[in-house]
Amino acid sequence: MHRFLWLASTHARACLIIGLIAGLALPSFAALLVPWLPMMVVALLTTTALRIGYRAALGAVGDLGWGLAAVAMLQMMVPLALLGLLTLAGLQNTTVALAIILTSSAPAITGSVNLALMLRLDGGRMMQILVLGTAAFPLTVLPVLWLLPQLGPPGDVILSALKLLGVILFATSIGFLLRHMFFPKPTEGQIKALNGLSVLAFSFIVIALMAALTPALLRNPWLVAQWAVLAFAIGYLMQLLTLLVLRRSRWRTVAGPLAIGAGNRNIAIFLVALPPDVLAPLMIFIGCWQLPMYLTPMLLPRLYAWALQDD
Fold first, then answer.
1. Which structural domain range is residue 28 located in?
2. Helix and strand tally (H, E) in the chain?
3. CATH code (residue 75)
4. How far is 141 from 186, CA to CA, in rounded Å?
5. Closest residue by Cα to residue 51 from 185, 173, 175, 170
6. Could you tell me the maximum CA-CA distance found in the chain, to the nearest angstrom?
7. d(C-alpha 270, C-alpha 202), whole Å
8. How far is the CA of 147 from the CAs of 142, 151, 274, in angstroms?
9. Per-residue pLDDT tens over the stretch 58-88
10. Is the pLDDT assigned to residue 140 strictly greater than 90?
11. Helix (H) or strand (E) holding 92
12. Cα 18 to chain center, whole Å?
């Protein structure tokens, strides 16, 4: 088992690609996994927390200052600015605008810590951004909901955010407890095995998240291509701009994790509040949204290396 986990850790990027291919090539299997997504998210969070450990995740109390400021900027100021630009262009009522605003106002995905680790970034900082962003989400999303009433009752979205926060706190607590009980001072081999376990969990969950994509490809490949281009543009431009803005600032030490959080958002948190006529096209977008996120460790390592290199 250790050898298998070490192999997954060594070939983490290949595991992500295999997960994406399986999600596209096995639509029936992906559909069977969809009802299990909540449990899979819990498993992913637990294994990630087990890998990181509570000491790295908690950090210093002083980190709350930069963390909350960053969350407010990424989850409230950025989407409001984008909404203003889209309104000036007369596009605020389009489905594309809705996808852009929802994506930019959502917190980081639960697998963002795994992405950070694969890019050799600080997993503890990334965990802080994930938890802080999810905790603050019910507040940061309120201005967006007020300006986009077609999303549904604000209470439904806020309740969804609180449920997600509860899941994150529960799953990470279990992971931290297991780390304290069984790996208080892990060896290098144990850390590599935990890396492999986390990679496998992250690679498996994408199969379910891609369930809507293959049927859509068969029906209307051009529509899927358009959504995919939008997904890559949003995800990678947000990461690029965050790195460019922060690489020479006083936040340089957290620029990498913040860029991961900026470009890899948990848009699925909004699904419970969307009306059925809006939900269908966004489900295709959500499937496409997995592509840039899971390909980030393969396509952007040089960008992060360049942006974060020592002068």
1. 2-308
2. 18, 0
3. 1.20.1530.20
4. 39
5. 175
6. 57
7. 21
8. 9, 10, 15
9. 654 456 677 888 899 999 999 999 999 998 9
10. no
11. none
12. 19
**pLDDT of 265 over the 90 cut:** yes
CA angle in degrees (0–180, nearest 5) for 311-73-254: 30
State the total domains in the chain: 1
> Quick one: average pLDDT of 4-23?
77
Q: How far is CA 240 from CA 41, 120, 260, in A?
A: 27, 17, 10
**How many angstroms separate the CA atoms of 146 and 278, rounded?**
18
Scanning the structure block, which residue is given the tokens 């492999």? 196
The whole-angstrom separation of Cα 176 and Cα 197 is 15
Q: What is the mean pLDDT of residues 249-264?
A: 90
pLDDT at 156 over 90: no
| Tally of CB atoms within 10 A around 153 | 11
Distance of CA 241 to the CA centre of its chain: 17
* pLDDT of the residue at 231: 95
**231 within 8 A of 63, measured Cβ to Cβ:** no
- Tell me the residue type at 303: L
Contact 175, 46 (CB under 8 A): yes
Helices 37-52 and 188-209 pack at an angle, to 10 degrees, of 160
Helix spans in 183-271 (H) = 188-209, 213-219, 221-246, 255-263
Whether 23 has a pLDDT exceeding 90, the answer reads: no
Residue 9: which pLDDT band, with cuts at 50, 70 and 90?
low
Bridge-partner residues for 108, per DSSP? 265
Kindly report, residue by residue over 172-207, the tens digit of the pLDDT: 889 889 888 888 787 777 777 777 777 788 778 888
Confidence category of residue 151, pLDDT binned at 50, 70, 90: low
Evaluate whether 51 touches 123 at the Cβ level (below 8 Å).
yes
Element (H, E) at 2: helix 2-10
The pair of structure tokens assigned to 282 is 């966004």
Which pLDDT does position 101 carry in this prediction? 92
